[in-house]
Amino acid sequence: MEDFFLDISYKNKVVRFKVVNPDAPLSTLIDNLRHSIGEDGRLIFDFPSIDQTGAPLDYFFGKEDPEVHEVRVLRPRIGREDQKLSDYNVKNGDLVYLVPDPIPG
Fold this sequence. Notes:
This protein is mainly beta. It has 1 helix and 7 strands. It has one helix at residues 26-34, and strands at 4-10, 13-19, 57-65, 70-74, 77-78, 81-82, 95-102. Strand 3 and strand 4 (70-74) form a beta hairpin. The longest helix is centred in the first third of the chain and has 9 residues, at 26-34.
């Protein structure tokens, strides 16, 4: 199987990531990304756990819809089904966005 890469954009920074298992649930991929460490030994992305108002944040992948040029959130679960990149037609080399999402209190 060939290597699978995603370009991930967050806060005006785009980083190319190798995805070891593109069939893993999206929640697993986000969790792995949250703990990804660069060559300098520091976290690649700073994931604040709360927003400016103090609300807890969750993170999702988003992908631009080419027809309306809006970023659509890729929900990690629909009903009881874990979603994968392929469920959203995300392909090797695609650009995806990290989308912070406040958790309603």
